[in-house]
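Researcher: Here's a chain I'd like modeled. Treat it as a single chain, no partners, no ligands.
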Amino acid sequence: MIGQETCPKRLAALLIAICGGLLPWHGCAKSPDEGWTMASTHDDQYRTISVPMFTNNTWFRGLEVELGRSLVVEIESTTPYKVTGQGTADTLLRGRIQSAELIKLSGSVTTGLANEMLFKAVLDFEWIDLATGETIVERQGFAASALFTPSRPSQETIDLARFGVVQQLAADLVDALRDDW
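Model: Modeled as a single isolated chain. Structure tokens:
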């Protein structure tokens, strides 16, 4: 009896995992007349993308390097595009990290030290068609934040929050490269 109850649960979990893996590649139709489709939501006229290092206008050094690595991984793992050099790419993704800040959310009553902190970063970016020079997608004030607990017992470092912010920015930015649906 126990084996029969867990089998449907395992099957449901497997189906959710499979469907979740397909979501970045598939979605709704481009026009209302087409209905539902499993076609890619990414523009198929482009095959390659160049991602030069973003400019960093903040005091947090190395944030642009971390973001660059995350963008390349996110683009190649969730889109049909291949990241290449600017000389061979169809498109160019460039941007600027405008701000990054630490925000104290709560503090200890006895010491005044931070219990919870938020690391927030804001960037601007544009995706350009190199054949025409036209902007495909442009966003200003694109933001992400991550919570961390520097106090005891967790004693999480700011690196954990930086990692979270960079991962979120990369995922959200690559999502913005899709066709409107």
